[in-house]
Design brief:
The complex is a heterodimer. Chain A is an alpha/beta fold. Chain A is built from 14 helices and 14 strands. By secondary structure, chain B is an all-alpha fold. The chains are: A alpha/beta, B mainly alpha.
């Protein structure tokens, strides 16, 4: 078939269309809001998180955990005698959308805390606003170091291991393994690059004998890893260290397994970020035996608070909470404790109360460091094992690398801030 | 690069091309006959993938796998028919901007429906055991599924060639490409022909989504990723040309795979680099007809 009429004009349109789809136009897709000004004697908090697109599962976990936590607070009499309302909005992972939503919530709805960013670029955009209006900003998913180091302000709090902590914790775990050649692979954006860089730098320091035989950054949301898999096979590493996660990780595993790069007797060892959602999704297809690291896998943490939270979460949503749900829940606990300690919802008073505070999280007692408001939470490491009690693979031989071992020192924080 | 690595990267490129051809061929066919730039073509692909996840999961035998893929394709073809009759046929006489806006609206509507029905989480499904193995070549290996993708695309290419060049319907399609007014005067039921062509295009998109479902994560967002690449393929090959879609897919697939091998930091730019070069050197693509 070959057209004889002109196609050139159409080609032009097709090029324009392509550009159109690539552009931020999809930002227009839906944003839901559960706004209500609330009865007298209530306060509003906002959960602006990513509920649509391929990162929607983060937002769903955040939404479930935050609404559960707030409902529990309200059922036990509220905070300082007031009912807490949650306004939930889809930030569509777009900084401009998130900024508009946040500004409206601050100016029209008088929110007293902001939860929820998934994407670091969204978090950085919101951070400027919350600093200006003095609203406590609780980070439980997005985790670039910038938020607590270079761009830090007094109102920002992080209950998630940041990229630097995660990379360094994994290096400590990897240094104990007998392997000497590594191939690094991670998603091509801020998180992937900085986490891998921290891992590599720390591991080189701990184990100068280790060589890095390759390094690749497939695009975020990649659907075809086959060429990367060929490259890894050609490089013959002993370990594939990966920061691929969630959907991208599942695609990578599917394709790596189908070529024998993962799961065969001769395969290199895989070390990767496995969150509970991903393990649940993989089910019996999880690469049992792989080294896994995670931020808050409920099955690796045995505390009374975790047990209570898991059973409450299961009772309400019929599934076990993901890492994202655990950390979102902890973020609400920290803020609520801060409000109680301050005896006020005033942003500055609550932030000052939280700074330096130790609170009882689902992950055990955690302390908010004054210099950067980063909590000293652990990174959890273990080997994947089939686990019938959980219903999917969990970690065997869990090691928790505590935040105290991998946090930047106060001097390093100060130096990084003055540098840039 | 060892010969084994070269071969595995070649296969990577060709299996990527197989998927791009399946999507690009439908896009190009619809454009050629209907003069419609269907932005929502990727959404049909996504629907095919989601339906396949459910059906492959439910029908677990090897026969069930084949049946699931056929059913998913047919279901998407039917959805395509519905869309053509309900929405698109009102737009053929309107200008292209209107078509763009309408098919763009379809992207958003389908995205919303998929979210409501399947949720925001990502999904995965396994291929039958016969297709999950690998074939070792030196230190490297290729996966059987890559060969399966290439076989499906090759078969579809053959069938499409027969359809377009050896059947009555194909003659009408070619006539529609050449001169739709003349076709109307010749007494062909043009609305029915257009619906048929759109259904075939949708079916191909659904088939592409269904066959790729066991080889990657299925989630919201795969629609936009694929439609951008498919547009690039059809622009490179020449809009409206099946030969163009075939060659364009192979060029894009190979440039991607060897590009990732040689200069991974520019991986995301290759496809657009090729598109830019082709547009400069040959503005209508390999097999597109220049403006008269």
């Amino acid at each position: 078939m070959s057209p004889t009429r002109s196609t050139r004009g159409f080609t032009r349109w097709a090029v324009i269309s392509t550009a159109l789809v690539l552009g931020p136009v999809l930002a227009a897709c839906g944003s839901s809001s559960a706004t209500s000004s609330g009865p007298k004697g209530s306060v509003n908090v906002a959960l602006n998180t990513t509920l649509s697109g391929s990162f929607g599962f983060f937002g769903l976990a955040n939404q479930n955990a935050v609404t559960l936590a707030i409902d529990q607070i309200n059922r036990s009499g509220g905070l300082l005698g007031k009912t807490v309302n949650v306004e939930i909005k889809d930030d569509t992972a777009k900084p401009d959308v998130a900024s508009d939503e946040t500004r409206t919530e601050i100016l029209n709805d008088n929110i007293v805390a902001l939860f929820g960013p998934v994407s670091s670029s969204v978090a950085l955009a919101e951070q400027t606003l919350i600093g200006r209006y003095k609203i406590p900003f609780m980070l439980h998913t997005s985790n670039t170091d910038k938020l607590t180091v270079q761009d830090f302000n007094n109102y920002t709090f992080s209950v998630v291991p940041n990229t630097g902590m995660e990379g360094r914790a994994n290096a400590i775990a990897a240094a104990k393994l007998p392997y000497t050649s590594y191939y690094l692979i991670g998603p091509d954006y801020e998180f992937g690059h900085s986490q891998l860089a921290e891992f590599k730098a720390e591991l080189q320091k701990l184990r100068p004998d280790i060589t890095f035989v390759g390094e690749d950054y497939p695009k975020l949301g990649a659907t075809d890893f086959s060429t990367y898999i060929s490259k890894i096979q050609a490089a013959q590493p002993q370990v594939i260290y990966s920061a691929e996660f969630a959907g991208d990780l599942i695609t990578f595993l599917t394709q790596a397994k189908s070529t024998g790069l993962v799961g065969a007797a001769t395969s290199p060892k895989l070390m990767d970020l496995f969150d509970v959602d991903t393990l649940r999704n993989l089910g019996a297809n999880a690469p049992t035996g792989a080294y896994a690291y995670g931020r808050a896998p409920f099955f690796a943490i045995d505390t009374p608070a975790m047990r209570t939270f898991v059973s409450a979460f299961k009772a309400r949503y019929n599934i076990a909470p993901s890492d994202w749900a655990v950390m979102a829940y902890d973020a609400v606990t920290l803020w609520a404790d801060g409000v109680k300690k301050a005896g006020s919802f005033d942003g500055t008073a609550v932030s000052n109360a939280m700074s330096g505070m130790t609170f009882n999280s689902t992950r055990g007692p955690l302390t908010v460091r004054s210099i950067d408001h980063q909590v000293n939470c652990s990174e959890y490491e273990g080997a994947l094992q089939a686990d019938p009690t959980v219903g999917f693979d969990s970690f065997a031989g869990v090691t928790a690398i505590p935040g105290s071992q991998v946090l930047l020192t106060p001097d390093q924080v100060t130096a990084a801030r003055s540098a840039g | 690069m060892t010969p084994a690595t070269f071969l595995t990267i070649l296969i990577s490129g060709l299996s990527g091309a197989a998927l791009l051809f399946l999507v690009g061929a439908g896009l190009s066919l619809v454009f050629g006959a209907l003069r419609l730039i269907n932005m929502a073509h990727g959404s049909l692909y996504m629907v095919g993938a989601f339906i396949a996840v459910v059906l492959i999961g439910a029908l677990t035998s090897a026969f069930g796998f084949a049946a699931a893929i056929v059913l998913a394709s047919v279901a998407v073809g039917a959805l395509g028919g519905l869309i053509e009759v309900a929405v698109l046929r009102r737009l053929y006489k309107r200008d292209h901007l209107m078509q763009l806006v309408a098919t763009f609206a379809l992207i958003l509507i389908i995205d919303g429906l998929v979210r409501v029905i399947f949720g925001t989480n990502f999904h995965r499904v396994s291929a039958p055991a016969a297709l999950t193995g690998s074939i070792g070549i030196g230190n490297s290996s290729i996966s059987v599924y890559q060969l399966f993708l290439m076989a499906v695309a090759g078969t579809v290419a053959g069938l499409l060639w027969v359809l377009v060049f050896r059947t009555r319907l194909g003659r009408s399609i070619r006539a529609a490409v050449a001169d739709p007014e003349l076709l109307r005067l010749a007494g062909v039921n043009v609305p029915l022909l257009f619906t048929t062509v759109f259904v075939i295009g949708a079916l191909l998109a659904g088939l592409a989504g269904a066959v790729i479902a066991p080889y990657q994560t299925v989630s919201l967002g795969i629609d936009v990723d694929i439609v951008v690449e498919a547009f690039a393929v059809t622009i490179i090959g020449g809009l409206g040309s099946l030969r163009g879609a075939f060659l364009g897919a192979i060029v894009v697939g190979l440039v991607q795979s060897f590009g990732i091998y040689a200069a991974p930091q520019y991986a995301q730019a290759f496809i657009f680099g090729v598109m830019a070069i082709v547009l400069i050197v040959r503005p209508s693509g390999f097999f597109g007809q220049p403006e008269r």
